Amino acid sequence: MLADTTSTVEVSLTVRGNLDQVAEMMRRVFGVSQDEQEQDKIIDNDDETPLPEVWSREDLARLWAEIYNRDARRLLAEMATKPAPNGYPVSSLGPAIGIGANMVGGKLSSIGFARKRVFPGKKDFRIVDNGTWRFMLDPQIAAIIRDLAKAEGL
């Protein structure tokens, strides 16, 4: 008997552990190497925040439309409320939109997967300063994301 490959299949995965353990498991599950992760600007900050690759309003609007998960869009919108140079504390993101810390990684991955799907090879506009564990969005990018969120009522 042949399997029906046209049916929708849903898979849920629960990963428990500390941040490093969960990050390693997610890399394994999604096939992301450490080199790819470093290319996505998960960096150690040496008092210089690198400038993001140029992202136009049209690019960000197109990306926004491809982020299908509403909580992922809410998370990005919240992140945009505190742009660089101070940034948004990673640990505060989930509570700010009412989701558990265990859900944040998946929502952030949704944003990354959409970016890679729509703009393969384009560097991420989200920068994580590993020294302070803050997301650092360029203020102009943050303003565009806030506009997109406002237009959606987020």
Would you summarize the structure shown here?
Helix content is 51%, strand content 6%. The protein has helices spanning 19-30, 34-39, 57-66, 70-79, 90-97, 101-118, 139-152, and strands spanning 42-43, 88-89, 127-129, 134-136. Strand 3 (127-129) and strand 4 (134-136) form a beta hairpin.
> Any low-confidence stretches, pLDDT <50, length ≥5?
35-52
Q: How would you classify the quaternary structure?
A: single chain
Envelope shape: globular
Q: Give the total of domains.
A: 1
- Largest pleated sheet: 4 strands, mixed
Helix content: 40-55%
Q: How far is the first residue's CA from the last residue's CA?
A: 47 Å
What would you call the structural class?
A: alpha+beta
Secondary structure tally, helices:
7
Rounded radius of gyration (Å):
16 Å
Write down the secondary-structure element order: HHEHHEHHEEH
Mean pLDDT across all amino acids: 77
Strand content: 5-15%
- The total strand number stands at 4
Strand arrangement within the widest β-sheet reads 1-3-4-2
Q: Could you outline the blueprint of secondary structure elements for this entry?
A:
Blueprint: H1 19-30, H2 34-39, E1 42-43, H3 57-66, H4 70-79, E2 88-89, H5 90-97, H6 101-118, E3 127-129, E4 134-136, H7 139-152
Parallel strand pairs: 1-3
Antiparallel strand pairs: 2-4, 3-4
Helix pairs in contact: 3-7, 4-5, 4-6, 4-7, 5-6
Question: What keywords describe this structure?
Answer:
7 helices, 4-stranded mixed sheet, 4 strands, alpha+beta, 51% helix, 6% strand, 154 residues
